[in-house]
Automatic annotation (TrEMBL):
Matching SMART domains: S_TKc (SM00220)
Source species: Digitaria exilis
Molecular-function GO term, any one: protein serine/threonine kinase activity
Taxonomic lineage: Eukaryota, Viridiplantae, Streptophyta, Embryophyta, Tracheophyta
Amino-acid biosynthesis found in the keyword field: no
Protein name from the UniProt record: Protein kinase domain-containing protein
GO cellular component, one term: plasma membrane
GO biological process: cell surface receptor signaling pathway
Protein kinase domain: residues covered: 15-270
């Protein structure tokens, strides 16, 4: 849908600084309320990539020097803002596990279930939005690239965020879907440690992913896990840690696909759901 300039101007009070939500390498984000008719909204929804865990794009305005994109407003901030709070308690372990599943679903969809596979290229917790129900809405596709179906990757100028950035892509400039897998692995590590990938340094000077893999190999996870995760999680925490370590392997060919990651997480989450359900032994026997 093409939107005239007067609509976002009106919605944002002429791009008032007070309406700014944030900004990054690809532009500034404003909050505004658009007057869009219901039938136009339907057209917008039907004409886009449609996945419940990807933020919806309503339209664009081409009347400015830099085109404006109009997205749905996601009400509950970013995964980063929920994890990195001063309080000792953040998101529950069950919510973190579900958020991991939903993010994996979105990425597997982009890699495997659209006509032209899409690599996001900037997967990180600040780009993982959450609505009122803490449902994931993956955002910020400014750096994303289509991959021709007859190719496994493309050579590009390196873009991404240090701490989440695939070292193979960084060193070669060759972008593949495994670059997203690496970044997602860092998010898994972030979910179970509550450490900040961009700024974390171990005593040896290692970044979060490398230090985490070392601790996994030494069976010394308690040294880095979020105490809340240790209290609330069960055996599935180790399963998530092992999966994360596979995702951030230095050699991209050794990493799983996002589809494999999604299926693994789905099974871990389903087992967690079953374990936590109040099913009596008698009911189980009957089933």
């Amino acid at each position: 849908m093409i939107i005239t300039l007067k609509e976002p101007e009106k919605a944002t009070n002429n791009f008032d600084k007070a309406r700014e939500l944030g900004g990054g390498a690809h532009g500034v984000v404003y909050k505004g309320i658009l007057d869009i008719d219901d039938f136009i909204n339907e057209v917008a929804i039907l004409s886009q990539i449609n996945h419940r865990n990807i933020v919806k794009l309503f339209g664009c305005c081409l009347e400015t020097e830099v085109p404006l994109l109009v997205y749905e407003f996601i009400t509950n901030g970013t995964l980063y803002s929920h994890l990195h709070v001063e309080a000792p308690i953040a998101l529950s372990w069950k919510d973190r596990l579900r958020i991991a599943v939903e993010t994996a679903r979105a990425l597997a969809y982009l890699h495997s279930f659209v006509s032209l596979p899409i690599i996001h290229r900037d997967i990180k917790s600040p780009n993982t939005l959450l609505n009122d129900n803490l449902t994931v809405k993956l955002s910020d596709f400014g750096a994303s690239r289509h991959i021709p179906v007859d190719q496994t990757g493309v050579d590009t100028v390196v873009q991404g965020t240090f701490g989440y950035l695939d070292p193979t892509y960084y060193s070669t400039g060759h972008l593949t879907e495994k670059s997203d897998v690496y970044s997602f692995g860092v998010i898994l590590i972030e979910l179970i440690t509550r450490k900040k990938p961009v700024s974390y340094r171990s005593a040896q000077g290692y970044g979060l992913a490398r230090h985490f893999v070392t601790l996994v190999s030494e069976s010394n996870l308690d040294h880095i896990l979020d105490p809340q995760v240790i209290r609330e999680g069960g055996g599935e925490v180790v399963d998530i840690a092992l999966l994360a370590a596979m995702c951030v392997k230095f050699t991209s060919e050794e990493r799983p696909t996002m589809r494999q990651v999604e299926m693994t997480l789905e099974s871990i989450y389903a087992a967690k759901e079953f374990d936590s359900s109040e099913v009596t032994d008698e009911e189980f026997d009957e089933n």
